[in-house]
Design goal:
homodimer; alpha/beta; Aspartate Aminotransferase, domain 1; Aspartate Aminotransferase, domain 2; 2 domains; 4-stranded antiparallel beta sheet; 14 helices; 45% helix; 13% strand
């Protein structure tokens, strides 16, 4: 199944047209390599769940089943457990978003919300707008519904809203089904949308009457600087996706979505069709985690941990990588984005990197159209500071050979330019 | 959201075309009424999870988190936890299906597998074949992909394969994307596909080269008679869906799918797009439940419980319902299907029934095209024998008024027929 062995497919030609567009996840495909003990993984965005106290979770898991057995073991409502939705109300209030519990649907991670929103909005050929690069899981979810994805470039302040404006002017009002953005510590770019641009993005969305989907998995993982208000706090028509994967544990597969009421009704229908309801069993545990444990201490510890790792990675990048490589310095989250000289193909380089004992995610996984070939996402969330330093050192080794070649090219190019200008 | 209040939808016209076809679940909509203590629910297919020992589940839940924390709390593989897939290998071997673990993908209940298979196979306008009536969750899952659903009628031996043959002859080879069947104790009809018809269905599927999806949630809940081999045991190209919801607990949302290798690769891609991976947290518990507890005793107890409830319901139906009502006598599973005189609309009758303190599921929920209006599904899985008897008594009361009218009509009809034949 996961192997490269070619299997004769007698069902070929009988799958839905959409399956031609559904991409495999490069990150998933690397999970095998990432679990080899001699390979340092800078690829997967796996949280450091060892900081979550297993004994505490074990205790609340047992108590939840014992005291709420009839609910934990039974089918639940499609919207999600009321108590957990109250937890989400409080979490959202802390970031400036006032909601009622009935404005929330609990999903199987934010990923399910992406799938449901794509199902609700996208007809084949519809245009959706994302940042470029963007979260590969979003591209996967969307691709099953066959949209045309337009990517807006970013700089250090996040999505280039001036480019967005040009694009929207070209498309006209309602010219796209939605704008998908990760404003905080973007995956994979690591950059954060500035306060000014948040306001401008919302103005443009209103002007062109296009829904905005705000995906905010990393918002609480800020290492420095002040928190910025989420888009949803500035405009109550924004569709907001949250997740417990980064503030608790991804193994429970719990996230949430809030959207204007008519859209919520559609999401709910799509959710019923997709799985009837989420796991009450996991929801009972999550509710207890956020109401009966010292989860804020754990989260503080996690933020400190990730912050140290970010420092370790960024320092090592400065120390080991040659000046031709540009990279971001995120103020939170999980990822650094590195851009290499244009002639380097990070996908073809990957096998060599694995041989050198390090993995990353090739940049083209984060574009719908093959761009990003000379880029890579480097995750600092999972490896220890020592491993991060060693991983970057190994990566630098792998790059060195290619860069030697690049420099030779450059000198040749410089030389021929001189020749041209002299002639 | 769930209310009937009409909300102005400024996004109307911007949803995907498929959303026009996605139906709400009548069962879900009734959950509110079903939880009122004065109403006896014969509607929802909720298992009697009080038979599952909560203290045992609490113990293994805690042990699973403590001993397998790194796996229980982390992202898992999209295929599912290896140990749980081994459990499924053994469960399948017991019903005559030999598999390897890599032939199995763990899903969020069998419902997710239905959604993924629909995603993989159905283009708008494609034909899919189901029994009629059929599982409403399947109709919901399929409807999001806009197929044309053709329903094959059933009798006491399950799907009428002679009608299927006529239909296939009309459609021609590969004329449908798949045939979806629930061979054991069908939901909602309660009938079981006979051994002879199983073989014939498979012959026809091979002859017309159409994949078969076998949905088997109730196979282990047989009260009497011998077990029949699943279709998958007779033909290894059959796509088989299983679930832990009825042999353990639906709150964990765990099921599985096995299919020929090329189809599995497509399902896996669709699953990654839908939720990245299933809940490792729930999978750790389920694995321990089937390897470290006396789950067979619990299942025996459940089968005995459901069998007694089937008896209570069927006896009460014989005792209270007038002879104009026909109903099935299932040898297992959760449901009885009742057919009333054609002029009775069970949906319009439902409000009255709720007032009388009983609910059922109106028959048209189980057809894609408005048929089944004079039918109802009666679930015996959830209420106690006493409540089942009282529920049927209340139902009979509600029906009595309508049937009086019917008898008057019939006599009038009989009279006018006599007049006609005399003239």
């Amino acid at each position: 199944m996961g192997t490269a062995r070619v299997v004769f497919d007698r069902w070929e030609g009988r799958y839905a047209a959409r399956m031609a567009d559904v991409r495999s996840s490069a990150v998933r495909d690397l999970f095998g390599a990432a679990t080899r003990s001699d390979v340092i993984s800078l690829s997967g965005g796996m949280p450091e769940i060892s900081r979550v106290p297993a004994d505490v979770v074990a205790r609340i898991a047992a108590a939840g089943v014992r005291e709420d057995a009839r609910e934990a073991l039974q089918y639940g409502s499609s919207e999600g457990r009321p108590g957990l939705r109250e937890v989400i109300v409080e979490l959202m209030a802390e970031i400036g978003v006032r909601l009622k519990a009935e404005q929330i649907i609990v999903t199987a991670g934010a990923q399910q919300a992406l799938d449901l929103l794509a199902k609700v909005f996208i007809d084949p050929g519809d245009i959706v707008i994302t940042e470029g690069p963007t979260y590969l899981g979003a591209l996967q979810a969307f691709s099953a519904y066959q949209p045309k994805v337009i990517c807006i470039p970013m700089d250090a302040e996040g999505m280039r809203v001036d480019v967005l404006e040009e694009q929207l002017r070209e498309l006209g009002p309602r010219g796209a089904k939605f704008i998908y953005t990760i404003p905080n510590f973007q995956n994979p770019a690591g950059v954060t949308l500035s306060a000014q641009r948040r306001r401008r993005l919302l103005e443009l969305a209103r002007e062109y009457d296009i829904p905005v989907i705000e995906d905010d998995p990393y918002g609480r993982l800020r290492f420095e600087g002040g928190h910025l208000k989420p888009l949803r706090a500035l405009d109550d028509e924004v569709i907001y996706l949250g997740t417990f994967s980064k503030i608790f544990a991804p193994g429970l597969r719990l996230g949430w979505v809030t959207a204007p009421r008519p859209i919520m009704a559609k999401i709910l229908l799509a959710k019923q069709a997709a799985d009837l309801c989420g796991s009450a069993y996991a929801q009972v545990t999550a509710e207890r985690y956020f109401t009966r444990t010292r989860w804020r201490k754990v989260l503080q510890d996690l933020v400190r941990t990730y912050s140290e790792r970010r420092d370790a990675m960024v320092e090592a990048l400065h120390e080991h990588l040659p000046p031709e490589v540009r990279f971001t310095r995120p103020e939170g989250g999980f990822f650094v984005w590195a851009e290499l000289p244009a002639f380097i193909d990070t996908k073809s380089l990957l096998a060599e990197a694995v041989e050198h004992g390090v993995t990353y995610t090739p940049g083209d996984a984060f574009y719908p159209d093959g761009r990003g070939k000379n880029c890579m996402r480097l995750a600092f969330c999972y490896a220890s500071p020592d491993d991060l330093r060693e991983g970057i050192r190994r990566l630098a080794e792998v790059l060195e050979d290619r860069l030697e070649l690049y420099r030779a090219f450059q000198m040749a190019g410089h030389f021929s330019e001189e020749v041209r200008s002299a002639s």
